[in-house]
Amino acid sequence: MVESVLVTGANKGIGFEVIKLLSAAFPRATIYLGTRSVERGEEALAKLHAEHLGRHVQVLELDVGSLDSIKRAFNEISLTGKSLDLLINNAGILIPSADPKDAEKVFAVNVLGIKNTIDTFLPILAPTATIINVSSELGAAAQWTLPSELKLILENVEELSWSKLEQILLDYNQPQPQYAWPSPPQTAWSYGISKAILNAYTRLFAAENPNLRVFAVCPGFCATDINGNAGFRSAIAGGFSVVWPILNTGLQSGLFYRDGVSLPYASQKLAENMTPDPNDEFWY
Question: Where, by residue number, does the polypeptide cross the bilayer (predicted)?
Fold first, then answer.
């Protein structure tokens, strides 16, 4: 039974659609709408109420790029004395820049922000809680291009550790890196790298916590603010993909899904064609 839910980055786009879907599926559950801006969160809540949804939705100020903000959000929820049944890490950023400082910002939210959120909320997660990390097939494309040494680290979950993943993150922006990073084929390549590392972390965390259900989920190339609404898939469809593991309990923890279909962690097909194609099954 789902009684308490937290969705980060939920005042718009895919996160907002996830809130709507979960409000309909679990009308009695307390759902926390995580948002950096309380004002925008209240606007989103008003939209929910206009659709006769969100009776038990509460706006929660939460910036996953700030550990202090994450801790404040945790304290607010923990004071209720309730366990958290669902944690959906939807918040993420894409910066169209090749500047190493911008790459650090992307990593800080898309990887470190999610890890910090999970670590902080772990004490109040229900014993069989579900965690969903919203990822992207760009991570699979990026992982394919990496040197074999790096790919082996990311793929060998038996020998993987957070310290290894953290070292990879730090190495990416070094003037003289340890690894032979490929030349970025696009200015937003750090986004793909961040999602490849997030996928590896998802597998690692799932292996370390077999009692929990843990998934990386790709919503597809949706029309949202993160890509200037260039996507050909709706945010609603993306929302359905994200909640699929919640509403369909037969999926295997630790895997990478889109619309309930298991995806590869490294894809040559995507790496060779970075332009989304609506007729391509990998991009729909």
Answer: none
**Strands 256-258, 213-217: parallel, antiparallel or unpaired by DSSP?**
parallel
Pick the closest to residue 196 from 151, 158, 132, 250 (CA basis): 151
- Can you tell me the distance from the alpha carbon of 131 to that of 150, in angstroms, rounded to the nearest whole number? 26
Tokens 């009776």 sit on residue:
55
Rounded to 5°, angle at Cα 72 from 68 and 77: 150
pLDDT of residue 225: 54
Give me the sign of the Cα torsion angle 242, 248, 254, 259: negative
d(CA 215, CA 218) in angstroms, rounded, equals 10
pLDDT of residue 77: 97
Q: Backbone dihedral region of 254: left (phi > 0), alpha (psi from -120 to 50 degrees) or beta?
A: left
How far apart CA 78 and CA 49 sit, in angstroms, is 26
* Cα–Cα distances in angstroms (integers) from residue 159 to residues 14, 177, 264, in the given order: 34, 22, 19
Distances (CA, A) of 253 to 18, 245, 264: 20, 9, 14
- The answer to whether 129 touches 212, Cβ cutoff 8 Å, is yes
State how beta strands 30-35 and 84-89 pair: unpaired
| 124 contacts 80 by C-beta, under 8 angstroms | no
38 in Cβ contact with 11 (< 8 Å): no
pLDDT in tens, 14-43: 899 999 999 999 999 999 999 999 999 999
DSSP element (H, E) containing 156: none
pLDDT at 101: 87
Residues in the chain, pLDDT under 70: 184-187, 220-232, 234, 273-284
